[in-house]
Amino acid sequence: MTQLTMQDLNANQIRWCEGCGNFGIINGVKKLILDLELDPKNVANISGIGCSSRAPHYINTYGINSIHGRAIPIATGLKLARPDIDIIIHSGDGDAASIGGNHLLHGVNKNINVVFIMYDNGLYSLTKSQTSPTTPRGHKTNTSPYGSLLDPLNIMQLVLGMGGSFVASTADWMPAHLLETLKKAHAHKGFSFVHVWQRCPHFFPDYVEHSRLDAFSFLTHEQGISVPEKYQGQTQIIDHQPSNLGAAFQYAHEEQPYLGLFYQNEAKLVYDEQVNSQTRDAQALNLEDVINGYAI
């Protein structure tokens, strides 16, 4: 395969607001493809509906911009049919945790072998600022003009509680940390949940304090994700063993947000591998006998 460049992976004119964090995220995905020398013909980017779900249009691989909240079952079907393909799912906080919440639950539980990126900007932005599951209490939107009445959903605790085998968090404005997180997620065999704090300067400029070096703490470990040099000595950095589920819950629960690899369980069985193994070993049945079995 000819060596690719970032230019080779560009596709279609991008239609996101100036300064949107989505640019940094898809650049991270493109760098992942280049650094790991993945063949774009063997990569599928799959999404639901939302600003982030335009991503498959902007990356020169195979892609499906699918139904709202339904990217996971579509990705599951593709992975079962083509286990050789690398699948990256792009989903916003609303697409993943609201209408797609049920599919997220089963995707995590089945542990299908995909990378799932949740773009979290705290809003439904494609519909011009509506309250999403991660919108902070009190924040005013078009659908909550007097302020959101609910505490935001703690997505990290939720995925940990559902039995996630790989749970990490990063940020769109930290390219090195984002890329290392994606590489770690890609190397993991199973459902790799990558939460990304994402800037939305047009509709929610105050959602993340990206200019403050101490706004986020970091989890790091020799088996985890390294801390960018500019943040070292500027904020809290904790040595966290990714196999420690109890500590992962503790850090997910704290008010100060953490970035890094919260949890990894490499022993959890992978659904698509089990199904394909079962299919390979299955004995062919006589169709007439199968039909006659339903006779009354």
Task: Walk me through the structure.
- The protein is an alpha/beta fold and 296 residues long.
- The chain has a single domain, classed as 3-Layer(aba) Sandwich (Rossmann fold), CATH 3.40.50.
- The chain has helices at 22-35, 71-81, 93-97, 101-110, 155-161, 175-187, 245-253, 271-281, 287-292, and strands at residues 43-47, 62-65, 86-92, 114-120, 123-124, 130-131, 166-171, 191-197, 217-220, 237-239, 258-264.
- The strands form two sheets. Strands 2-1-3-4-8-7-11-9-10 form a nine-stranded mixed β-sheet, with helices on both faces. It has a two-stranded antiparallel ribbon with strand order 5-6.
- The longest helix is centred in the N-terminal third of the chain and has 14 residues, at 22-35.
- It is globular and about 70 Å long.
- The termini are far apart.
- The mean pLDDT is 95.
Shape: globular
How many helices in DSSP terms? 9
Helix content: 25-40%
Strand content: 15-25%
Oligomeric assembly: single chain
Q: Which structural category do the helix and sheet elements fall into? A: alpha/beta
How would you characterize the largest beta sheet?
9 strands, mixed
State the name of the first-level CATH class. Answer: Alpha Beta
CATH architecture: 3-Layer(aba) Sandwich
Rg to the nearest angstrom? 20 Å
Give the mean pLDDT.
Answer: 95
Order of helices and strands: HEEHEHHEEEHEHEEEHEHH
Low-confidence stretches: none
First-to-last CA distance: 58 Å
Number of structural units classed as domains:
1
Q: CATH topology, which one? A: Rossmann fold
Strands in their spatial order, largest beta sheet: 2-1-3-4-8-7-11-9-10
- What's the CATH H-level superfamily name? Thiamin diphosphate (ThDP)-binding fold, Pyr/PP domains
Instruction: Write down how many β-strands occur, each being a DSSP E stretch of 2 or more residues.
Output: 11
